[in-house]
């Protein structure tokens, strides 16, 4: 289960927030591999069920260890990213790492360069230096004789160059540094901190760093290396989200593990050593001194003194799965939520107090294990995932109450789920269903986050730079319930907009005219405006969209006009009426910064070339003026705006050449205003959707500055007026289990039974009987059809129990002996409060309950024996009864299997094979047998089989034993011959003193005995096989084999075997066969007696004595060796045949 967004916001909305950060990260190509991930918002941890569309980890995440990505081969000069609001986020930007020609640009800007080159080739076409139908490029002059366009239809560009007030400061001595982190405190603070670093690609670490501080809004900077230690190498800068004066610096752990702490906005520092290596930090959303630290060895620490002292909370914590308590949902502000791994690798959801997290004080809010990396705690909701039966199941806890399974339409059958938003007491989720591959369906929940209904199908998705899922959904800032989404229709991606949280969607109307005022012929639904909604950490990735809470009507985005969304011919568009109409403002990609509550828009072109100009608009993008912000063209690496509501100071980061120091250009926009706005400078503006003024059940009128007034707005006041609307059908969505049909009505889905009552409904109580509709959450309408469409309380009728089921909590039909198994009783309908439930576990134990509510957490039981148990449940009330049965297989772990076989057998004689198990009683087993040349296995429930071999030769027998999730096997080899001789051997008693009775020892001793027999008799080794038998006293079996060469010729006759047998008996009787076991220990080999049947090795080992048969024949490269069974026939009275012993 995955999570998209941050702070309950959509992916693209997250991008808007990232653009509003007070902390900026710049880095050379590839240098961000060792750079930090984006810290989280001050309000709490970012959701992590799916990777966010911009890099996100725990708040203030430190650099992850490991090799960085490979550096790009060309300078990365790419587009600037803006940051204008307070916060502690980090954005990856870039600066060129080395000296290259200006024409060498990174791959991302290649498309723009090709397009520019094509235009340049036009030569005398009269368009040089001007974008087609657009604004002149930097440094280009307007063409003489260019016809004037209608100013009311075209975007106007004023080409007179104006000058902004700016100062430039160089970070002298840092020209080699390829990473920078910038923090601007804001909120009437003039302090800016900059940490620059040199990241060494070969070493994979930071080798140099410098810390700079400004106290005059960036006009001048002081280098603080002497205050933090001249030899100290800093790796990361942290800022307390609730007190910007508190700064924390982390040293490079390759050198030392220390923290430097400042409480005066970085003026002075105290150094504290650590006994662990920090990977990420999470600040408390309210308490400025409380911090959680995650170490590189997966331990979680807490500090109540802003990092001065640390205490271990828990080991084995899953990365990024730890959270502070959410105020309002948790009573204890110091409560920590975390996902931890057990010793056996399972994941558990735990909670505990930050300073008292002992085993006795930990709670487990979710019973049992959860899927790894699935815990999310956000706002009033906690989410976990549990997979059973091959399907993921999702659970939610609302306001820390008991977990409930999240209910999607019955046949959604999700493969993947990402929670996008939990704003306004509602869950917005993206679900990839069983038949989807690159798209997701959007679902929206009720207040508790349990029941979900479809909001939009087939929303486009993609994978981010780190393999994370990115959903093309954008929540527009400042307007509740307004979203943009890219939907895939017949392999075309189109942009849709909604004003009521997904209840209704429509395409975007394209602009009426282009930049020059020429008509745009684009007819819905065949042609419309399409926008890029992705927000990426990659500066090369196209697609920017921006909106602000303080400018609710203004949306700026890149996109194209046509039948579908395209990655080519991207232009910039603006809407000043909340997405109803759009204007084209540039024909090339620009980054846009909101100043003065959106009263001023600043646009800076995406280019690989140095620039010194930007564009300003004072009338919501209708006209633009050209301003220079520096006298020398600058390669722009990034832009950081002053945090706060008024935002009139901006710092541009860049460099004049590829080898120069960082250049910091402070731009002050206050000089362009001559006064503050007065009441007469504003006009009312009413939010609407295609003329419909009721949005989310209310009419809202905002105050806008008149476009012709060039005054400074100051603080944002929000909506000027808000009036509730009368409820209509448009304010209601379909309830769970209902679907909207073409006539607009919500009717039951084929799988849903509206008459089904809640299992909690009891006779004499009431329940809410759905009308098929539910009001959109946060909709403020009143009266009208509200009463008609709202669910009605209804008395619970008495009903007999029906649909009774009993299952295990994990959905399995197996349980382990001696361990708790949790059984769940489920009832579709019936009076559960006045119901008697009887459960018989099938092992002689039974229990009774008076209602189902007392069994909500399941019934736990321990089975002390293995076997198949018939678990029955009987439910009775005054109107009837129902029963259910579960056949539960109780097993214990199977440790090993040993296949017991004769060493040798005769042709056409029945052979018994037995699988010997350890332990012997493990429960229900399945045996799979392969033998001889059979290609199909024999499957049995018994551990023994019988079979015959009809031809001579070696045969392999394999048995596999399946016990629960474990499958073990053993393999043996058996030889088949028509005749051979066999004799039991015994040894001098001292051999027993050295016999450990293990298979390896028996194999080695068999080889030594055979060697002694060959040396004493001169009989070729191919005729002799010795197998030492298990047990004491030590004994062995000697086989005389009718060996033949590989051609099949020269096979020994019975007479030959008789001669060999007599020779062996003679030497054994003369005590001629002996061997030295160890220095000074001589072992004599004697003839004991003939065997009456083939011998069987019963040793319970994994491989048994199959290897006893693999003797010297192997060394001569023959395929046939070891033990042979023999055919019944008469033989001379010496070494005898089976069934005919020597008299």
Automatic annotation (TrEMBL):
The chain crosses the membrane at residues 1106-1124. PROSITE patterns: PKD. Residues 135-157 have a biased composition (Basic and acidic residues). Pfam families: PKD, Sortilin-Vps10, Sortilin_C. Residues 38-54 have a biased composition (Pro residues). Residues 55-64 have a biased composition (Low complexity). It is a single-pass type I membrane protein. Belongs to the VPS10-related sortilin family. SORCS subfamily. This is VPS10 domain-containing receptor SorCS1. It comes from Canis lupus familiaris. The gene is SORCS1.
